[in-house]
Design a protein that fits this description.
The chain has helices at about 5-15, 25-45, 70-75, 90, 105-110, and strands spanning about 20, 85. By secondary structure, it is mainly alpha-helical. Helix 1 crosses helix 2.
Length: about 110
């Protein structure tokens, strides 16, 4: 079993009971998980692969996966910003999904 597959199994077991599911697009999911692993190697923590990290754990605290915005994003849009974590309904819908806007405050976007 690869490192990304182990991470998939671990996080799935932790997050599904909380109502957060991986995107059914397994290829996309595994790419995002691989990016989380890469960021953990780079920064020492699994920072969101869809956002720019500062390299400061304190500065990046809101975007360490699962980010501080996931709950509200999934509740409102059915998906987090990256589309890694989604609701059950989001996975079951065959329709196009709405774009999830960036919630991170502008002052945290520039370094």
């Amino acid at each position: 079993m690869t490192e990304v597959e182990k991470l998939y199994d671990t996080l799935k077991g932790i997050q599904e009971p909380k109502g957060y599911f991986f995107n059914k697009d397994r290829e996309r999911t595994l790419e995002l998980l691989q990016a989380l692993i890469k960021n953990r190697e780079r920064y020492g923590y699994m920072v969101c692969p869809c956002r720019l990290a500062s390299g400061s754990r304190e500065g990046d605290g809101d975007i360490i996966c699962p980010c501080a915005y996931r709950e509200k994003d999934v509740r409102e849009y059915g998906s987090c910003y990256c589309n890694l974590y989604v609701s059950r309904k989001w996975n079951e819908d065959g329709a196009d999904h709405p774009y999830v806007p960036e919630r991170r405050p502008p002052e945290k976007l520039g370094f």
